[in-house]
Amino acid sequence: MTQFIKKVILFIIAFFIFDKIFYIFLFISPKLEVDKRLEYLVNGKINKDVVIIGSSRGARDVIAKQIEDSINVSAYNLSYPGSDIEFHEFLLKTLIKYNSKPKAVILVLDDSSELLPDETINFRLDRLYPLARYNYINNEMIKRGEKNFSSRFLVLSRINKRNFDMSQKYFTHLDSIKDCGSMPISFQREGSKEFEYSNVSVYDETLEVPVKVESFLSFQQICIDNDIKLYLVFPPNYKAHNQLFENRIRKLAQPNVSLLIHDTINESYRNQMFYYDELHLKNNGAVIFTNEIIDMLKSEKSKRKVL
Amino acid sequence: MLFNSIDFAIFLPIVFVLFWFVFEKKLKYQNLLIVAASYLFYGWWDWRFLSLILFSTLVDFSVGLSLKNEKNTFKRKLFLWISIIVNLGFLGLFKYYNFFLDNFIDAFLFFGTEIKASSLNIILPVGISFYTFQTMSYTIDVYRKKLEPTSDFIAFTAFVSFFPQLVAGPIERATHLLPQFYTKRIFDYSKAVDGMRQILWGLFKKIVIADNCAEYANIIFNNSTDYSGSTLILGALFFTFQIYGDFSGYSDIAIGTARLFGFDLMRNFAFPYFSRDIAEFWRRWHISLSTWFRDYLYIPLGGSRGTIALKIRNTFIIFIVSGFWHGANWTFIIWGALNALYFLPLLISNKNRTNLDVIAQGKYLPGIKEFFLMLITFSLTVFAWIFFRANDLNHAISYISEIFSSSLFSVPNFIGNGKVLIVIMQIGLFVIIEWFGRERQYAISHLGYKMKRPFRWAIYFIIIAVIFIMTGEEQQFIYFQF
Fold first, then answer.
1. Does residue A191 surpass a pLDDT of 70?
2. pLDDT at residue B49 in the model
3. Nearest CA to CA, how far is B426 from chain A (Å)?
4. Which of B145, B171, B186 represents a domain boundary (last residue)?
5. Are residues B122 and B197 both part of a single domain?
6. Same domain, B466 and B373
7. Which band of pLDDT confidence, cut at 50, 70 and 90, is reported for residue A272?
């Protein structure tokens, strides 16, 4: 029995040493990534006045550089295509934890799937895997049940199949990130001629995902607690503005949170030429919409000296 | 508690240390610890259903004791039926009630009568089919006077709830396992090491093979109308390896865990996909269930004695009941019937016991004939698994129809997907390891046996690393639902 226990302990120690060889993969993995925004965030390199957070709509429809140039503030776009409000909340927490607090945060809403079940937007765990060497990131994965506590001391438990992909990642024509973090697109989706302007607006509050609603409320609360001005932004879609969704957001919005609804009578937003597809603007459309945000920020700046 | 969870990784060493260092003085204390650990293990999933296990234990223990002193044949039969009715009653209520109800409603509707009845909104207790069969084996063996009934309640409770095999087998016979709770256990170093190795291999099968195959089997089966016939074949193949890795992996972990505590559990899988005919497949697949049905159903029905018609009847009964045991769905019944059909030619031609040895024993490769026989048996098995995996009969039929359409000759949808190719390579490597270990209890039991410790350990390290690295999306063990 004693011999068995001794062997088991020896085996565990030897394995513990062997396990550390794999640290090399954790170390190399972030270097191969092309989107380094999250790593910048964890390393405290996003110290900006205005930060834009959202999903693909935030990434495509808002150009941070244009804001910087227009109102003389620093701005950065932290929007991730395919991300949901839970991921946005995580980004905001990380931003505050490791960087100087922004003066304003622009949360670009997904009309109308922000709080509804939607398979196309989720917590972007795939963005966290390459950064597993950071304890903060690993702890977040543990919190989300993606990893267990053994990942705190075992590299193999912390590592993911993705960390073994030793190829350098490159931008695709859809995912090119500008220095300001925005990802505008200059072309239309293939087969885009098929999409039609829709006047139908529906919103069913009963379908909302409680966790998403909780995150949405928490997102606002974090901004309030940290004295960050929050703007909830409704970007245009190639369809009529959804008043039901707006009403729901108004109901959930805290009193000192500002809402910006795109100019619903602007004819450009009814023109396909300004869209990549039904849900995302092309760069020419993004310029128009970013100007609306700039106007709002300017007005806020003069009124309340927010920025 | 799942074997492939961190909870179990903590639970097992604690129980092991308590078993061998704290409770080692008295057998009764060790048995008591096993009962406590087993109830904790099961209660981790849902403590409410512990009462079912306890009730089943109490009934069979009492029936056993009553049978001990009873000479009257009628009363003996009565006691036996009490046990069978209680155990099958639980199964019937939790597993089959809604199935029978729905089918009765449909049948009446077919004849123009609408009946209204509400189905039960109940969850199926994990492992109920396993422990009820295990306790029934005790009562039946006592009734048949093959086993002395026990008067040690703790030992009997430990036998019924023994945590390594409580929720998914192997379904132990009382004649084999119960006496092991009476005898003093002496720690056996080589047995414990072997147990650890078998646990390792079981984890590999479950986490690397089954869970990775499950990812694509689920995608293909759940969206079967979107895929070509060739892709559907790929889906069926993925499921074939998923179910084998999942269930035989569980059995390996169960047997290995039991060995750590000085117990021997029966073998449950013997490389079934290397079988040359269906009869051999069924001697190698889920052995504890097949032999249970053989001993307690097939032989009492007359077995292979009597007329051909009787033999055919018995074969269909055992296969259909076996299918139905897996779940309350027509797909399982058809799966069982299909296997009976496969078995029939062998039975009629009296060739069902021709392949009793291991294929290509002592050789590296099988002969051409053996290879083709193995390929045919494997293909038949893959085909039958489609029914097993399908959501319902319509799904199975549409799945099979699409396979036999012109799209069968197209390139499968997933070829070119790097991740799928990695899974296919994993399966290939796994089959090779299994092939070279097919004459052993489990594939890696002698892997690196003659090597020096550092090299042997290096192999284990690599297997553990692969388990960590290739971890697929965690899936519950398939057989938990049975």
1. no
2. 85
3. 14
4. B186
5. no
6. yes
7. confident
